[in-house]
Design a protein that fits this description.
- Helix content is 70%, strand content 0%.
- The chain is mainly α.
- It is extended and about 60 Å long.
- It starts with 16 loop residues before the first helix and ends with a helix.
């Protein structure tokens, strides 16, 4: 991690043993990381169209690897964890108010929590 950091790290008697053990290797790896990002910076920029085409192709190639139920579970876990913030934001948004999204999210959370 220190090899990827842009700041210099001072070692002292309280430094973790792992930092002390690998301190002499950090400059070597740091130069690799700097060269890597410099090489990326020199690459020609790609257009949004090319990026979108690449992402669409990757999605197509890996579509059989996507687990919808797992994705839904992860979304629910996130919504459940941040439910207050999400509901408050939806209650303040004009478009969300028109669609009653805060209420709908509350209903989903209630239904899912009573299932478990």
């Amino acid at each position: 991690m220190d090899s990827c950091s842009t700041s210099e790290h001072r070692l002292g008697k309280d430094s973790p043993s792992t930092k002390l053990l690998y301190a002499k290797d950090i400059p070597h790896y740091k130069s690799w990381v700097e060269r890597y990002y410099a090489d990326i910076n020199r690459l020609p920029a790609i257009s949004d169209q090319d990026m979108n085409a690449y992402l669409a192709e990757q999605a197509r190639l890996h579509s059989s690897e996507f687990n919808v139920l797992s994705a839904l579970h992860e979304i629910y876990a996130y919504v459940s964890k941040y439910s207050q913030e999400i509901i408050e934001t939806l209650e303040q948004d004009e478009q969300a108010q028109k669609q009653k999204l805060a209420y709908k999210v509350e209903q989903i959370i209630f239904a899912m929590s009573s299932e478990s």
